[in-house]
């Protein structure tokens, strides 16, 4: 009987810690970065070309314009990605767009609310793309899970930036 009590106490402790995570951690944030041996103009143009996005984010199945505004800010896109054999539809909204400097995107992907702030800087012909990302959830249980997947989110975004670097550096100039 004592063994069962100990096991129940341990399980209860883990459950309480898990649930407290969702109350305490409201947002999961991280940074990823890549340096690309191309001018900021080339990098920024390639980054914002929706026709090429599946060259560096292979999970993208389709990218559809819902509403495109002059100047890009407020534009909305529908993106379908394949995640572990399951299609996920998400919307992307452009929150900020400063040519050759910054793009801020907001994603709503079935309960995951993600803001990606990309900063573009150039020094001596090398462009650095810095991603400042933040994830939230519109459900409590998902909010409890996100902090434990921060490393996975970071790895995924870093691999996308690395793929983007390879794509842009291999791309022939037009």
UniProtKB/TrEMBL annotation:
Keywords: Membrane, Transmembrane, Transmembrane helix
Any Pfam family hit: Polyketide_cyc2
Superkingdom: Bacteria
Database matches in InterPro entries: Polyketide_cyclase/dehydratase, START-like_dom_sf
UniProt xrefs under SUPFAM superfamilies: Bet v1-like
The keyword Transmembrane helix is assigned to this record: yes
Residue ranges crossing the lipid bilayer per the database entry: 6-25
Protein name: 1,4-dihydroxy-2-naphthoate prenyltransferase
Protein's organism: Polaribacter sejongensis
Upper taxonomic lineage: Bacteria, Pseudomonadati, Bacteroidota, Flavobacteriia, Flavobacteriales
